[in-house]
Fold:
Amino acid sequence: MFSSLRRRYGQMITSASQFIIAAFAVQVRELWVWFGSAVLIGLISLFAWRSVLVRRRLFTGTAIARIVSAAQGYALLHGRGFDMDESVPLLAACSNRPCLWYRYRVTESSGRHRSVVDSGESDTSFWIDDGTGRCLVELKGAEIISGNEKKWTEGNLTYVEWTLHAGETIYALGEFNTERAAARLSMRESMKNLLEEWKRNKKQLLERFDLNRDGEIDLQEWELARAAARREVEKTHDEIRRQPDVHCLRLPENGHLYLITNLNPKKIARHYLWWLLFHIAVFFTALALLPWLWTLAV
Structure:
């Protein structure tokens, strides 16, 4: 089963809206309503077909990159998923099972009617590791497709839960950035900030650098303070430079597809292909009906 996080089953919603329009036209039984409904359904299908086509091309046209050598920008990564903090794993809301991500829906049955009483999803980031390095995967704005579905019933409540698990293979397509802490280092700015911090605590500054104990910091003493600040900043910068770079995958700013899945790319490509075929079939069906409806109307 497919589960889509942020898109909220966009393709199914599109199909449902088309069904509602068609059902409304049947109930009204007016030719001009039928004609307008056919036009609207055709336009929705054409728009949806183009949207799916773009998404499929982005996914199938992006080669898998290695984290250690991936170019900055749009990239497809592939590796094992791990918790941000493996000592405190994320627990799924309904089943309480350890996972990387979950989405759930709870429905209640009342006679022939069924209604959603609760739903939600997690937004905790996690790591993927491809053997060459680790990349932090953010969930904001992501479409998540998972093959892990669990469904069970308790009384008149039905629970459906989708998850991604630690250790399983994850494919992630999005904006890849490497955040290098050393690239943001500035000796001048760091010294300025440190000296301003020392000035705010004048008592400590005097105790440390007022050598003649006259209650003031003269030029010679201020030079000593600057030299001490430089030594502290250099030490701090050296520690920062020894830290590894942080790779991050997030939602592209240009609106391109941001996809996270535990399914094989071929299965994802087929998923998009079936939706392409469905929307184009609906479009041509609606198009074929227009001349007939127009004939009846006139």
Observations:
- The helical segments are 10-28, 31-60, 187-200, 202-209, 219-241, 265-297.
- The longest strand covers residues 73-83.
- Residues 265-297 form the longest helix (33 residues).
